[in-house]
Design a protein that fits this description.
Elements: H1 2-20, E1 24-26, E2 37-42, H2 47-53, E3 60-61, H3 74-78, H4 83-86, E4 89-93, H5 100-119, H6 122-128
Amino acid sequence: ADAVRLLALRKRLESALTSGLEVCRVNGHPERRLPHIANISFGFVEGEGLMMAIKEIACSSGSACTSASLEPSYVLKALGVGDELAHSSLRLSMGKWTTPEQVDYCIAKITEAVNKLRLLSPLWDMHKEGIDISQIEWAKH
């Protein structure tokens, strides 16, 4: 019964974030994942910066395997997630006492923080202008 309830909460979180934010990706297999853990990447937002913007929400960046490292998660990379999206991921866990209202609170706070951080990102501006950032040859200093 708990697994069914947690899966519903996870799906609520993932669905709201991916439908409400552009360049937002759920990481992992669509079905074969733990019901209580969501790993979501938010393009054009640094995961560490996002965590600082939502201090009231318990979360981590990347996967559990690399939560103490600033390197992109090798787990996410093995799933085909590029370095940029791997660096922009959050891992959120729900538990026995998590309520739908708490999930809705997380959705609102994460959405607000992602939108604010993107306003500060020149790469987000370039993306919105239709520039394919992956094709840019960046100069090395």
